[in-house]
Each structure stands twice: as structure tokens, then as C-alpha cells.
Design goal:
Chain C: Pfam families: Fer4_15. The structure holds 3 protein chains of 3 kinds. By secondary structure, chain A is an alpha/beta fold. Chain A has 3 domains: 205 residues, Rossmann fold; 82 residues, Ubiquitin-like (UB roll); 108 residues, NADH-ubiquinone oxidoreductase 51kDa subunit, iron-sulphur binding domain (de novo design (two linked rop proteins), Up-down Bundle). In chain A, helix 6 crosses helix 9, helix 14 runs antiparallel to helix 15 and helix 14 runs antiparallel to helix 17. Chain C is of the alpha+beta class. The chains are: A alpha/beta, B mainly alpha, C alpha+beta. Strand 6 of chain A pairs parallel with strand 1 of chain B, so a sheet runs across the interface.
Chain lengths: 449, 202, 70
């Protein structure tokens, strides 16, 4: 049994306020316990804290005096030792981003990415509804670390997190003002260069060009971070890097919010520590609701893994990298045996093709072509050239667009060919499985259904 | 001698019109991605560029001889500043505007790698405005020559060529293949996805 | 690991609108996919092709093809 303690004294160099409190956490029969750090408020009484309760629970944020270069440096060092990695899917080391932005010339901007464009993931808007002050603390800490003059929280139009974040913002007096920007609800709009482009020109389209850390919003050095990453940052600032590393693994430290969906008993958002095997994560969600054949990890642009591979696979960046795969958006969709992986993939590819920004040829022509091939495959259309054509196209599209949208879609398609190999062969021979016509498991926005 | 200069001017004017027409036609085709086995795209591009320079050469002679000739009293400034000439101010003026545009086109194209792309593209499209000015200038300033049958025929051919090519370009834009719409129907499925609406936090 | 030796070409995927001049001038290192967009071979441009590469970069109608400084 693992008990993970919530807090300890922050190092003297960072604190000049009251000593942080200890947060009680669960004991769970499963090793790699359900870690409670970000969702402590909800676990406690089923609702978000207001500012006072939040400060009682986690302690006040260490005093962040603006302009004190030495302390900023120490904070970033602490984050580096903690090994915090981005929680938006790419897993980029946060301390490196902070260093790059802090070192760049100009008045920095912090952009908190709460868009969560992938429909398989609910963790960000859940976090913002249940712990809005943690996210806002994180933004404040990030602003301090890079000496930012402005901060923007990006949410999709119509996001359920809009009201809670506005309400929480109204209760605070942070040194750096935070504005909320509503972003068009397109899939690629939440990509970091697209957000920067949106805030600069109003067009939510990915761009090529200098990195945001050097020249981002309106040419200013910009830090773009996922809201969950910022929430973790807020806790590291209080409790330090050693505390942070008490959960997780050496290369993927800390806890993370995971969205588990599909054929499980209790689909939802869970806070787990990195290193938890996928089978344990599914157990947390009440286990499979029917016998499974595969899981999709990493969202719509992620990877299909047959259960035999997925079961013992720990959820960490390094274990996935060892298989040549990115960990991606932290979401898992469990696909039952009585479902058709080919048809699910075909639906997802059609959606992803439709969501192309339409700026780069290989994406705007390649994705619809691959989606069409998969649709033909799902329908069991006999076409001797189909698989060859598909393989060729899968080889030609990746790496030739301005953003990773086509690469992710192609990766998803390729993983389907491998994970559902028997099915694919049957479909290609004109014998589609009988599950192809049933209600879909991969969540997609209504219009694409 | 005077007559020779005047004839030279009118002659090179006609040749310039032909060359400019060919330049515009090739330019439009190039933008429309026309390519053939013997005329790959780079060839279209290169010939278009060379024709434009050849047009400039003939235009230089056309303007030079017109100014050198004392008959109509055309000054150098009349070639660049529109509507200030004593001789046929309107038609000469149109020619001057066309010449100014032509020079702007050539200079920006020579400096294409240093000019912002959007500005270059916008200015280059002004060629479609420049060419009609040249045609009208030719018909108007040509005087009695414009009534000659073969001159009329030349004008008609030039106008027809450009009209055809412009029409093709416009039709192209309407027909531009949108990324292939995913048409193959998926197996019929009831709408609605499982997890998102039912997701809750534990 | 070979050392990097010389300029290499790259294409800006947003600017590229598949005119295809580059593939005509540099068929040894650029081929077009089925939709007319360029696929570039990896690695630096061989010395024999550098002049062609420069010409291709200058000829690109949208200036999408770029030659990095060696």
C-alpha cells in the first residue's frame, strides 16, 4: 500500500509565508495509489474551493515578489529538479521552456492552454471546474518565473470552464492581470502556434516560424503551457521538488490527470501517478464493462494498443518511447471485443481530415485520402490495391505539414493497421466484421457522427 | 529620316503589344499550373520572364524613337507622366500609365526575394490592368494605322488570346479541387458516442 | 554519423501551393507526391546541384522553397 503525503516545508529560499499544510490522501489497495494532489478539494467535499478554502487546504502561495531575479532563478531550478513535464501531450520539460522564455528579450506573456480540443479528454475542463485556484496560482507562478507582464487563459467558446474560471478570477488579486480569451472550437485551434497566431492576428491556424518562446504573441516571448502543467507548477512552488518526485518515475515524475473512457464501468477523470500500468488504470475506473480487445491511448491522434500489449505497459513517457510511441494526450478509450476497430478508426480519420486547417498540401489532401481508404476498408469493399495504396500514403504524409496534426492522424491509422491486423485482412478480403455497424465508442463531436 | 523614326516607333509599338500579349498569356497559364511534356512549368516560367524583358527592350525603342522624332513633339516626360503631352494626351497618357506599371512590375520581380510576397503578388496582378491600357493606347495613338485590316486583325487576336486565358483562370478557381471529400459511406451507425456526457470525476 | 556539409533545402508547407517547378529543376532530390506537393530527400544538397537548388529557390512562385546557408 502506498500513502503519498501531500506536503512538506518548502525550501527557505522560496517561502516567506506560512508553512504549508499536510494534505491527507487515500490509501488504496492498488499499488500506484490513486494520488490526490490536484483533486484534493473534490475528494474532500465534492466541490471546488473558494479562495479562502483553497489557501487553507494548500497553504498560501509563497510570496512572489516581482523583479527579484535571484528568486526566479531558484524557482526555475526547483522546477528543473522536479522534472515537471508538460501535461498537454508533448511532455516537454517545463523548466526548459521557462528558461527559454525568461532569457528572451521583451515583455513576456504567459498563455495558459485550457482548450482541450481532443474529445477523448475531459481532464482540463474538469480541473478548472474543481480546482480553478490551482490553475490561477500556476499562472501567477509562471508569470513570476518568466517575469511576464500579461497572462491569457485560452478556453474554447462554450467551454464549461468559462464561468468557474471567471468566478475564481474575480476573487483574486494577482500581480499580473489574467484575461480570458475564447478560441474558436476547431481541433487544431488549441495547438500552441495556433493559439499564439490567434492572439496575435485573430486566425486560429498553426504557423511555421520562430518558436513562441522567442517571438510569440505580438512578437513577445511567450510561454504556452497546459493548465494542468501550471497547476502542478503551483504545487511545486509550495512544496518543492522532492515532494513532487515522491510520485511517478524518474523520467516521468509526479501525478497526472487521466481521462478513462470507453467500455469501463466508471468512465471519468482520475488522478494517478506516472508509472501506473494501463490495466491498473482501468481497474481504477471499475474495470472493463465487457471483454476488451484494445485501448486507444493518446487521444484521437494517439495509438491503438492491443490489450496484450497494453496490460502491463506503464503509463510513462519513457516506456512509450521505448516502443517508439509518444505518450500523447493523457486519455484512454477502452474498445470492447464486440466492436470494430477499423470502423472506429475510419470515423476518427474522417473527423481529423475535416479538422485540417487546410494550409498544407500533404494534410489537406492526404488526410481525406487516407480517411476515404479507411472508410472503404470499414465497408468491406474489395479492392486489391487498397492496402498498398494506404501503406504508401501513410508513408508519404507525416512530417510534411506545419504542425503535428497530420502526423498524429497517420500514426493513429498506422497503429490501427497493426493492432487490428486480422480484422484488416478480413475487411480487405470483403468480409467486414458484424460489429462494424454498431454504436461507436470513440467520442466525436456531434456533427461528425 | 523623320519618317523612319515614326515608322520605327509604330512598328516597335505593335511588336511590343504582341510580346506583351504573349507575356500575359504565359503568365496566366503559369499561375494556372499549365504544363506540358515539352513545356514543363519551369519553361513556362522562364519564357514568360524572358518575353517580359524582350517586351521591355522593344518598348524602349518604341518610346525612344517616338521621343526622338520631332513630328509629334513628344517629350521624355510624356512617356512617364500621363496626360501632359500635347499630342493625343489621353491615349499617350494611357500608354504612360501602362509603362509605369510595367516598370514597377519588372523592378519588383527583379527584387522578388527581397519584397514581401503579398505585395509582390498584388502588384503582379496589376499586369491584368496594364495590358488593356496598352491595347487602348495602341488603338488610340495609332491613328490611321489602326484602320488597317491587318492591324485590326492583330488587335483582335491579342484581345481574344488574353480573354481566353483569363476565362480559363477564372474557371480554374471555381473548379479548384477541394481536398477530396470523404465520400465512401461508413457502415450505418446510430448517432451518439458513449463516454463524454457520462464522464464524472472520482 | 556523417557531418553536416553544406546547405540544405527545405519547404515552407504553408506557403507551398504545388506549382512543381522545384521538382523539375531538382528531380534528383525532389519528387512530387500524388497531389503535386514536394517530397524532399534528406541531407545536404550535393555540390553538383547547388546551382540548380539556388535557381529553384529563386524560381519558386511562392518562395516556399528555401536554401539554407551552408
Amino acid at each position: 500500500m502506498t500513502l503519498v503525503t501531500g506536503a512538506m516545508l518548502a525550501s527557505d529560499a522560496l517561502t516567506s509565508g506560512p508553512i504549508s499544510t499536510i494534505t491527507p490522501l487515500h490509501q488504496s489497495p492498488i499499488p500506484h495509489a490513486e494520488v490526490v494532489r490536484l483533486l484534493a478539494a473534490w475528494t474532500d467535499d465534492g466541490r471546488a474551493d473558494d479562495l479562502t478554502e483553497h489557501e487553507e487546504r494548500y497553504g498560501r502561495l509563497p510570496s512572489l515578489l516581482p523583479g527579484r531575479g535571484v528568486r526566479r532563478h531558484l524557482l526555475i531550478d526547483s522546477v528543473r529538479r522536479a522534472g515537471l513535464r508538460g501535461r498537454g501531450g508533448a511532455g516537454f520539460p517545463t523548466a526548459e521552456k521557462l528558461t527559454a522564455v525568461a532569457a528572451a528579450k521583451g515583455r513576456a506573456v504567459v498563455v495558459a492552454n485550457g482548450c482541450e480540443g481532443d474529445p477523448t479528454s475531459s481532464k482540463d475542463h474538469t480541473l478548472m471546474q474543481l480546482a480553478p485556484h490551482l490553475v490561477l496560482d500556476g499562472i501567477a507562478v509562471a508569470c513570476y518565473a518568466v517575469d511576464a507582464a500579461d497572462a491569457v487563459l485560452c478556453l474554447h467558446q462554450g467551454s464549461p470552464a468559462l464561468e468557474p474560471m471567471r468566478a475564481a478570477l474575480a476573487q483574486r488579486r494577482d500581480p499580473v492581470p489574467v484575461t480570458i480569451a475564447e478560441v474558436p472550437p476547431r481541433y487544431v485551434a488549441s495547438e500552441s502556434s495556433a493559439l499564439v497566431n490567434f492572439l496575435t492576428t485573430g486566425a486560429a491556424l498553426p504557423t511555421t516560424g520562430p518558436r513562441a518562446a522567442e517571438r510569440g504573441v505580438k512578437g513577445r516571448p511567450t510561454l504556452v503551457d497546459n493548465v494542468e502543467t501550471l497547476a502542478h507548477l503551483a504545487l511545486i512552488a509550495r512544496y518543492g521538488d522532492e515532494w513532487f518526485r515522491e510520485a511517478g518515475t524518474q523520467q516521468s515524475p509526479g501525478s497526472t490527470l487521466l481521462t478513462i473512457g470507453g467500455a469501463v464501468t466508471w468512465p471519468g477523470v482520475y488522478e494517478v501517478e506516472y508509472g501506473i500500468p494501463i490495466s491498473d488504470a482501468l481497474e481504477l475506473a471499475g474495470g472493463e464493462s465487457e471483454s476488451l480487445q484494445a485501448v486507444a491511448v493518446g487521444g484521437l491522434g494517439g495509438t491503438w494498443l492491443p490489450v496484450s500489449v497494453a496490460d502491463e505497459l506503464p503509463l510513462t513517457h519513457e516506456d512509450f518511447a521505448a516502443l517508439g510511441l509518444p505518450l500523447g494526450i493523457p486519455s484512454i478509450v477502452a474498445l470492447p471485443a464486440q466492436a470494430c476497430g477499423v470502423a472506429e478508426t475510419a470515423r476518427v480519420l474522417r473527423y481529423l481530415a475535416h479538422e485540417s486547417a487546410g494550409q498544407c498540401g500533404p494534410c489537406m489532401f492526404g488526410l481525406p485520402a487516407v480517411a476515404e481508404d479507411f472508410a472503404l476498408l470499414a465497408a468491406g469493399r474489395r479492392d486489391r490495391e487498397l492496402l498498398d495504396r494506404l501503406e504508401r500514403r501513410l508513408g508519404v504524409v507525416p512530417g510534411r505539414g506545419a504542425c503535428s496534426h497530420p502526423d498524429a492522424a497517420i500514426g493513429f491509422a498506422a497503429s490501427a493497421l497493426s493492432a487490428f491486423a486480422d480484422d484488416v485482412r478480413a475487411h480487405a478480403a470483403g468480409r467486414p466484421c458484424r460489429w462494424a455497424a454498431q454504436q461507436p465508442w470513440m467520442p466525436l463531436p456531434e456533427e461528425a457522427a | 529620316m523623320d519618317q523612319a523614326l515614326w515608322f520605327a516607333s509604330r512598328g516597335t509599338g505593335l511588336v511590343s503589344l504582341l510580346l506583351l500579349t504573349a507575356t500575359v498569356v504565359l503568365g496566366a497559364e503559369h499561375a494556372g499550373r499549365t504544363a506540358g511534356a515539352r513545356w514543363p512549368r519551369f519553361t513556362v516560367h522562364a519564357v514568360h520572364r524572358n518575353l517580359s524583358l524582350l517586351s521591355l527592350a522593344f518598348l524602349a525603342v518604341h518610346v525612344g524613337t517616338a521621343v526622338a522624332d520631332s513630328y509629334a513633339g513628344i517629350r521624355v516626360v510624356d512617356a512617364f507622366l500621363p496626360f501632359v503631352s500635347a499630342y493625343k494626351p489621353l491615349y499617350l497618357g494611357l500608354g504612360a500609365v501602362a509603362l509605369d506599371l510595367m516598370l514597377a512590375l519588372l523592378i519588383t520581380s527583379a527584387l522578388r526575394t527581397r519584397v514581401p510576397l503579398a505585395a509582390w503578388q498584388w502588384l503582379h496582378r496589376a499586369a491584368y490592368a496594364m495590358w488593356p491600357l496598352a491595347v487602348v493606347h495602341g488603338i488610340g495613338a495609332g491613328g490611321k494605322d489602326s484602320n488597317l485590316l491587318w492591324v485590326q486583325a492583330l488587335n483582335v487576336i491579342c484581345v481574344a488570346a488574353v480573354l481566353v486565358v483569363v476565362w480559363r483562370r477564372l474557371a480554374d478557381r471555381r473548379r479548384t479541387p477541394a481536398p477530396m471529400a470523404v465520400t465512401a459511406r461508413l457502415p450505418r451507425q446510430r448517432t451518439g458516442a458513449h463516454s463524454r456526457e457520462k464522464a464524472f470525476v472520482r | 554519423m556523417s557531418r553536416y556539409t553544406g546547405p540544405s533545402i527545405s519547404v515552407d508547407p504553408i506557403a507551398c501551393t504545388a506549382h512543381g517547378l522545384c521538382a523539375e529543376l531538382l528531380p534528383e532530390i525532389i519528387e512530387l507526391d500524388e497531389w503535386g506537393y514536394p517530397i524532399l530527400a534528406d541531407g545536404p544538397v550535393p555540390p553538383a546541384l547547388r546551382a540548380q537548388a539556388k535557381a529553384a529557390a529563386r524560381a519558386c512562385p511562392t518562395l516556399a522553397l528555401k536554401l539554407s546557408r551552408g
